[in-house]
Amino acid sequence: MVTIIPRIAFVVARGANGVIGADGDLPWRLSSDLRRFKAITTGKPIIMGRKTWESLPRRPLPGRLNIVITRQAGYQAEGACVVPDPGEAMNAAFDQARQDRVTEVCVIGGAQIYAAMMNLVERLYLTEVDAAPEGDARLPEIVEAEWREVAREAHPAGERDDHAFILRTLERA
Ligand SMILES: NC(=O)c1ccc[n+]([C@@H]2O[C@H](COP(=O)([O-])OP(=O)(O)OC[C@H]3O[C@@H](n4cnc5c(N)ncnc54)[C@H](OP(=O)(O)O)[C@@H]3O)[C@@H](O)[C@H]2O)c1
User: Fold this and answer.
1) Most exposed residue of 62, 73, 106, 128, measured as fewest CB within 10 angstroms of its CB?
2) pTM
């Protein structure tokens, strides 16, 4: 029997200055990007840090196994799977992906978790937001030469978007 190893993808929106978060929240309102986030991640296991979990307006995100990484023993996250480190998060995500026959697991942030899993990621769903907001959470640098762009779509700001943005999909070169 062939064992399929699911691909690890990041789903992230960053400003032109690398900022992804401010004061525990997103630094912008981008409804169009949230729709894209839902379309990409629904049906796939999603991995996140405890702070991102606590920032979600609705918990857990429905239709996906929510996996929360924390060092706190006994941390309660109702409706989610709580794990002590990124390795255990991957184990839980891969088990679920195999069970559901999906070929991708999604890391959805925040900055600490992207940094911890950067060397494992094979695909980036990257929203480049046309803004440089102040913030305290940043995406680690993405070295473009290490990636191949497989899709790119520019979007003007919609009615419920603070900024214009570009949707990019990158794969490891
Ligand atoms: N723009 C985007 O696409 C996007 C996406 C996601 C999040 N964000 C933003 O990013 C910010 C949150 O990012 P953040 O970096 O502050 O927090 P985070 O990565 O969401 O969570 C950090 C927490 O995860 C746990 N953790 C981190 N590394 C760990 C490890 N190696 N082993 C075990 N546990 C570990 C710790 O939890 P404990 O302290 O409980 O031990 C740590 O405090 C928010 O502003 C959020 O809105 C933006």
Assistant:
1) 73
2) 0.98
Q: How far is the CA of 1 from the centre of ligand 1 (A)?
A: 37
Beta carbon of 6 within 6 Å of any ligand 1 atom: no
Q: What is the dihedral of CA 110, 61, 124, 168, to 10 degrees?
A: -110
Q: Is 86 in the pocket of ligand 1 (CB under 6 A)?
A: yes
Tally of domains within the chain? 1
In a domain, 2, yes or no: no
Q: What whole-number distance in Å separates Cα of residue 36 and Cα of residue 166?
A: 12
Q: Is residue 32 assigned to a domain? A: yes
At 82, which CATH number? 3.40.430.10
- Distance (angstroms) between ligand 1 centre and the Cα of 52 equals 5
Q: Is 60 in the pocket of ligand 1 (CB under 6 A)?
A: no
Does 60 sit behind a cis peptide bond, omega within 30 degrees of 0 on the bond before it? yes
What are 10-25's pLDDT values in tens digits?
A: 999 999 999 999 999 9
Domain limits for position 54: 7-172
